[in-house]
Amino acid sequence: MSESETEPESRPLGPNVRQTAAEMATGDRTDTLLQTDGLVKRFGGFTATDDVDFGVAEGELRCLIGPNGAGKSTLLKLVTGTYEASEGHIYYDGHDITDLEPHERVQRGISMKFQVPSVYGDLSVRENARLPIQRFADGAERRERVDRAIEAAGLTGYEHVDASALSHGQQQQLEIGMAASLEPDLLLLDEPVAGLDVAEREAIAERVTRLNEEEGIAFVVIEHDTDFVASIADEVTVLHNGEIFLEGPIDEVKADPAVQRIYLGEEE
After folding, report:
1. 121: DSSP letter
2. What is the model's pTM?
3. Cβ distance 21 to 89 under 8 Å?
4. 34 in helix, strand or coil?
5. pLDDT tens digits, residue range 181-227?
6. 206-234 burial string, b = 16+ CB within 10 Å, else e?
7. Which residue(s) pair with 236 in the sheet?
8. From the record, what ranges are coiled-coil (predicted)?
9. Cα angle, residue 99 at apex, residues 93 and 102 outer, rounded to 5°
């Protein structure tokens, strides 16, 4: 990388001011919140993501689709810092976060809900909702934030119910509410409706779109259910063999013959 790409510049921006690569990719002069650049992750001799350039705009709701093993979960774990990148860079909100620890990325505004709910079954809904909030708020502010998290999860009236007594869908909603309570700018969801019935899927779709539209949270959602994707997504990115295969509106993606054949299991 050249000096002009890496050297920070402290004076006011002007036509000849040098900027870092992170500023050029995701800084104040662009609507892009997240951008990966040539992102590679290898596990031994297996390449899970291969030269991925993936971007998300501020306030966008984007879905990732593709068959098992396409690299979708790996990509999100690279963004959160769960995995270290083998090559490439991750830019977020004007900063290169490639080498930051996961908790530092959370502090910068990135939150994630993994595929399997990780709520504490022996704690009540309210106690679960309080866990992420108690680290940065107390007193009246904490109570207000907990109330909002429970409302965002659609679980008002369930405050004192043990999480183990909730349905799988309600547990998913609770964890989404908990992740959103950190007030992230970007929330990553890994298959949030897997194993849910139609009503539960509709409830999750309503929660996600509400948080996106009312709170301005940008989302990246991994999901196999293309009907669910169509109900929430602005844009869709298709991954195949660790590479970006196609990007565009869901209707165009679903109509693409290669997508139908390779990803949706239909004949061309």
Report:
1. T
2. 0.85
3. yes
4. strand
5. 888 999 999 998 888 889 989 999 999 999 999 999 999 999 888 88
6. ebbeebbeeeebbbbbbbbbbebbbbbbe
7. 63, 248
8. none
9. 75
